[in-house]
Amino acid sequence: MKVHPTLNGDNTPRLYARFEVGSAGCFNTLCSGFVLVNTDIPLGMPLVPSRIGGPINSQIMYLEQDVANGNWWVMLGEDYKQVGFWPKSIFTTLQAYATGAKYGGITYSAQGLQFPPMGSGLFPKKNLLENAYFRKCTFLCYVNDEMVTYSLDHIGTYPFQSNTTIYTVQDFIEQGDVLGHLIVYGGPGG
Length: 190
Known about the structure:
InterPro entries: Glutamic_endopeptidase, Neprosin. This is Neprosin PEP catalytic domain-containing protein. It comes from Solanum lycopersicum (Tomato). By secondary structure, this protein is mainly beta. The protein has a domain of 99 residues. 4% of the residues lie in helices and 29% in strands. The chain has 2 helices and 13 strands; from the N terminus they run βαββββββββββαββ. Strands 4-7-6-5 form a 4-stranded antiparallel sheet, with no helix packed on it. A 3-stranded antiparallel sheet has the order 9-13-12, with no helix packed on it. A two-stranded parallel sheet has the order 1-8. The chain starts with a strand and ends with a strand.
């Protein structure tokens, strides 16, 4: 999910895909790279954000490498609905396996304009009724042809905050079966 006023013309959070290879990169399907296979889930579609005191809207997302062809798939929901994939051929180090993943929020503002709020617009406090979060963050890999699930606690995390006066992140180790490894983030922007 990303808020990008220059790309979309508004401050609406939207589903997006991005990749970077060296100094090149691209959003969604604006250049060759991400292959959309499900037009029912278009990249750039508006997402309904949760509101404090209102219903909580959440999305289950999976990133998985297809062991048969090496492509990296984005899937949504408990039924693993395929959105699209990044072909193995556009990567160098990801052709065989991933060495990490990034979780978090991203906003964008053109030079001279204020950055929009991230998440609920509040700094994180481990209050899931008021903050944006990722829960049950895991890393899946094949070991001797068997799928193995590792919590981020097992492989380690490296929280990054580019400007702590407008956004912050909190990283919580294993929080039980419902939450798992928890990452809470957001801020008012500015």
